[in-house]
Amino acid sequence: MAVIVDVFGARDDNFGYLVHDTASGRTAAIDAPETAAIKAALARRGWDLTDIFITHHHLDHVEAIPELKAEFGARVVGPKAEADKIADLDVLVAGGDTVTLGETSFDIYDTPGHTLGHIVFHDPVGKHLFSADALFSLGVGRMFEGTPGPMWEGIKQLRALPDDTLVYCGHEYTASNAKFALSVDPDNTALQKRANEVAALRAAGKPTIPFPLGEDKAANPFMRADEPALARHYGLEGADPAEVFAAIRKGKDNF
């Protein structure tokens, strides 16, 4: 029982992903950012699209659903809390649910904040996390709809997953995230190491995705909102970590 993950670019800075269950031959697109990019990846691999797993309602993650569903007859799985915002959903899921792709099971986690109903898909056996815009390499999504408390709780759920989990996020934002992270946590050696790796990857024209969750736990300031160093930076010693998380998010918004 195993999956193959194909990574490709879509739109301007989106990542597209195909997840192929080798036992059954079923293939899921994680989100639907762009029809042409997804079809090109399918053709390159020789796979047929059977499923589409949607994380949230933003256009750059759902725009291709109607075309792909019409052409392939794919089953579309998406967040129950955003069913009124996403057309063509067949299966509605929320945190605590499980969805299968052939012989592979994905656990669903609620990660509100970027949007209120944002979910992520975690393959605990293969150790793959598809985090879309909830968690980026060295960052998190902009808090468009949610509030800091629930968003921080969602991040803590993801932080509790095994360190060797590979994270596949929605966009290539790592270089800009690294610059901000260094501005608020400059003495973090894990962050310094990751920032250097990111600079080398981008200079070579390579993506920074996927990344090991354990490395991000040590380097991503948003994952460390309960660490004293971040609280001190914002003058919030002794404050609730959600308040520190809010300060970090505001800092990034204005960076």
TrEMBL record:
Any one biological process term the GO annotation gives: methylglyoxal catabolic process to D-lactate via S-lactoyl-glutathione
Pathway: Secondary metabolite metabolism; methylglyoxal degradation; (R)-lactate from methylglyoxal: step 2/2
Pfam families associated with the record: HAGH_C, Lactamase_B
Binding site for Zn(2+) 2: D60, H61, D133, H171
Class of this enzyme: hydrolase
InterPro entries named in the record: Clx_II_MBL, Glyoxalase_II_hydrolase, HAGH_C, Hydroxyacylglutathione_Hdrlase, Metallo-B-lactamas, RibonucZ/Hydroxyglut_hydro
Keyword field: Hydrolase, Metal-binding, Zinc
Cofactor: Zn(2+)
Domain Metallo-beta-lactamase: 13-171
Cofactor note (record): Binds 2 Zn(2+) ions per subunit.
Reactions catalysed according to its record: an S-(2-hydroxyacyl)glutathione + H2O = a 2-hydroxy carboxylate + glutathione + H(+)
MF GO annotations: hydroxyacylglutathione hydrolase activity; metal ion binding
Binding site for Zn(2+) 1: H56, H58, H114, D133
EC number(s) on file: 3.1.2.6
UniProt record similarity statement: Belongs to the metallo-beta-lactamase superfamily. Glyoxalase II family.
Function: Thiolesterase that catalyzes the hydrolysis of S-D-lactoyl-glutathione to form glutathione and D-lactic acid.
HAMAP family, sorted: Glyoxalase_2
Subunit field text: Monomer.
UniProt xrefs under PANTHER family: HYDROXYACYLGLUTATHIONE HYDROLASE, HYDROXYACYLGLUTATHIONE HYDROLASE GLOB
Name by which UniProt lists this protein: Hydroxyacylglutathione hydrolase
UniProt organism field: Devosia litorisediminis
